[in-house]
Design a protein that fits this description.
By secondary structure, the chain is of the alpha/beta class. The chain has six helices and five strands; from the N terminus they run E-H-E-H-E-H-H-E-H-E-H. It is globular, with a radius of gyration of 13 Å.
Length: 118
Protein backbone atom coordinates (compact mmCIF):
# COMPACT_ATOMS: atom_id res chain seq x y z
CA UNK A 1 0.00 0.00 0.00
CA UNK A 2 2.10 2.86 -1.27
CA UNK A 3 -0.35 5.02 -3.21
CA UNK A 4 -0.89 8.39 -1.58
CA UNK A 5 -3.58 10.97 -2.25
CA UNK A 6 -3.26 14.72 -1.94
CA UNK A 7 -6.92 15.02 -0.99
CA UNK A 8 -7.73 16.05 2.59
CA UNK A 9 -8.61 13.16 4.85
CA UNK A 10 -12.06 13.52 6.45
CA UNK A 11 -12.31 12.21 9.99
CA UNK A 12 -15.02 11.05 12.35
CA UNK A 13 -14.89 11.24 16.13
CA UNK A 14 -15.79 8.22 18.23
CA UNK A 15 -18.97 9.80 19.65
CA UNK A 16 -20.31 10.28 16.13
CA UNK A 17 -19.22 6.75 15.22
CA UNK A 18 -21.26 5.43 18.16
CA UNK A 19 -24.31 7.30 16.84
CA UNK A 20 -23.76 5.93 13.34
CA UNK A 21 -23.46 2.37 14.68
CA UNK A 22 -26.62 2.80 16.77
CA UNK A 23 -28.66 3.74 13.68
CA UNK A 24 -27.55 1.35 10.93
CA UNK A 25 -27.84 2.51 7.35
CA UNK A 26 -27.20 0.83 4.02
CA UNK A 27 -25.53 4.08 2.94
CA UNK A 28 -22.51 3.45 5.21
CA UNK A 29 -19.91 0.69 5.20
CA UNK A 30 -17.47 0.08 8.04
CA UNK A 31 -13.96 -1.35 7.64
CA UNK A 32 -11.54 -2.52 10.34
CA UNK A 33 -7.93 -2.85 9.16
CA UNK A 34 -6.48 -4.35 12.35
CA UNK A 35 -5.04 -7.84 12.62
CA UNK A 36 -7.10 -10.90 13.62
CA UNK A 37 -5.22 -11.05 16.93
CA UNK A 38 -6.37 -7.49 17.66
CA UNK A 39 -9.97 -8.33 16.80
CA UNK A 40 -9.79 -11.18 19.30
CA UNK A 41 -9.03 -8.57 21.98
CA UNK A 42 -11.51 -5.86 21.01
CA UNK A 43 -13.96 -5.33 18.17
CA UNK A 44 -17.05 -3.48 17.07
CA UNK A 45 -19.91 -5.25 15.32
CA UNK A 46 -20.73 -4.35 11.74
CA UNK A 47 -17.18 -3.85 10.48
CA UNK A 48 -15.73 -5.73 7.54
CA UNK A 49 -12.29 -7.07 8.45
CA UNK A 50 -9.60 -6.18 5.90
CA UNK A 51 -6.26 -6.42 7.72
CA UNK A 52 -3.52 -4.33 6.15
CA UNK A 53 -1.08 -7.22 6.48
CA UNK A 54 -3.25 -9.11 3.96
CA UNK A 55 -3.46 -6.16 1.54
CA UNK A 56 -2.17 -8.22 -1.41
CA UNK A 57 -4.98 -10.74 -0.88
CA UNK A 58 -7.95 -8.35 -0.87
CA UNK A 59 -6.81 -5.16 -2.62
CA UNK A 60 -7.39 -6.45 -6.14
CA UNK A 61 -11.12 -6.88 -5.59
CA UNK A 62 -11.74 -3.84 -3.36
CA UNK A 63 -14.25 -2.45 -5.88
CA UNK A 64 -16.46 -5.53 -5.41
CA UNK A 65 -15.89 -5.94 -1.67
CA UNK A 66 -16.82 -2.33 -0.98
CA UNK A 67 -18.97 0.23 -2.80
CA UNK A 68 -16.87 3.25 -3.85
CA UNK A 69 -19.98 5.46 -3.76
CA UNK A 70 -20.92 4.71 -0.14
CA UNK A 71 -19.58 6.49 2.89
CA UNK A 72 -16.73 4.31 4.17
CA UNK A 73 -15.65 4.59 7.81
CA UNK A 74 -12.27 3.00 8.58
CA UNK A 75 -11.04 1.89 12.02
CA UNK A 76 -7.77 0.63 13.49
CA UNK A 77 -6.17 0.75 16.95
CA UNK A 78 -5.19 4.43 17.14
CA UNK A 79 -6.01 5.87 13.70
CA UNK A 80 -2.70 5.56 11.84
CA UNK A 81 -3.32 2.43 9.77
CA UNK A 82 -6.90 3.46 9.09
CA UNK A 83 -5.62 6.82 7.80
CA UNK A 84 -3.34 4.92 5.39
CA UNK A 85 -6.29 2.84 4.24
CA UNK A 86 -8.43 5.95 3.75
CA UNK A 87 -5.73 7.56 1.62
CA UNK A 88 -5.43 4.41 -0.49
CA UNK A 89 -9.20 4.12 -0.89
CA UNK A 90 -9.28 7.70 -2.17
CA UNK A 91 -6.78 6.74 -4.87
CA UNK A 92 -9.12 3.87 -5.82
CA UNK A 93 -12.05 6.20 -6.44
CA UNK A 94 -13.73 6.10 -3.03
CA UNK A 95 -15.15 9.58 -2.52
CA UNK A 96 -16.56 9.45 1.02
CA UNK A 97 -13.92 7.90 3.28
CA UNK A 98 -13.61 8.87 6.94
CA UNK A 99 -10.92 7.92 9.41
CA UNK A 100 -11.91 7.19 13.03
CA UNK A 101 -9.91 9.63 15.18
CA UNK A 102 -8.09 7.71 17.92
CA UNK A 103 -9.30 4.32 16.68
CA UNK A 104 -10.87 1.64 18.82
CA UNK A 105 -8.69 2.75 21.74
CA UNK A 106 -10.42 6.14 21.85
CA UNK A 107 -13.79 4.41 21.39
CA UNK A 108 -13.12 2.21 24.43
CA UNK A 109 -12.11 5.23 26.53
CA UNK A 110 -14.80 7.71 25.48
CA UNK A 111 -17.77 5.58 24.43
CA UNK A 112 -17.74 1.99 25.69
CA UNK A 113 -15.44 1.09 28.59
CA UNK A 114 -16.54 -2.56 28.30
CA UNK A 115 -14.32 -2.80 25.21
CA UNK A 116 -10.87 -4.01 26.19
CA UNK A 117 -7.94 -1.68 25.77
CA UNK A 118 -4.67 -3.14 24.60
Amino acid sequence: MTAQSNQPLPQIRVAELAQRLATPSDAVQFVDVREASELALAKLDGFEHLPLSEFAEWSGDIQTRLDPQKETIVLCHHGVRSAQMCQWLQTQGFTQVRNVVGGIDAYAIAVDPSIAQY
